[in-house]
């Protein structure tokens, strides 16, 4: 039975039967979407929680994090204006041109 034949068959049914079919069809689709969402949330939450906990443990206190960030910022500004980074090459290869 094709979709077109099924829909034309539904059109011949009484209104209350069509409403029941529409309700249960939409309910089924909603359940499937909810299950996919639930599976994705539980899959992400398990690893994300441990990752966040590890990051918080490494960060220390908020004061330590801010102090490290400010120190790093001043170091970067100093390097930009007063000590540009130089690129050094350990070896140079010269090839003849064409």
Describe this structure as you would to a colleague.
The protein has 98 residues and is mostly helical. Helix content is 76%, strand content 0%. The protein has a domain at 3-59. The chain has three helices and no strands.
If you compute it from the alpha carbons, what radius of gyration comes out, rounded to the nearest whole angstrom?
A: 32 Å
Derived structural class: mainly alpha
Strand content: under 5%
Number of strands: 0
Low-confidence segments:
none
Gross morphology: elongated
The whole-number mean of residue pLDDT values reads 80
Query: What is the overall number of helices?
Result: 3
Q: Please bin the fraction of helical residues.
A: over 70%
Oligomer category: single chain
Distance between the termini: 71 Å
């Amino acid at each position: 039975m094709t979709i077109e034949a099924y829909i034309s068959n539904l059109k011949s049914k009484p209104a209350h039967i069509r409403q029941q079919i529409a309700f249960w069809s939409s309910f089924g689709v909603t359940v499937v979407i909810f299950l996919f969402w639930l599976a994705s949330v539980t899959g992400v939450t398990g690893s994300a929680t441990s990752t966040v906990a590890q990051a918080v443990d490494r960060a220390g206190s908020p004061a330590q994090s801010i102090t490290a960030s400010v120190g790093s910022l001043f170091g970067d500004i100093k390097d930009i204006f007063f000590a540009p980074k130089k690129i050094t090459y350990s070896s140079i290869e010269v090839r003849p041109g064409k």
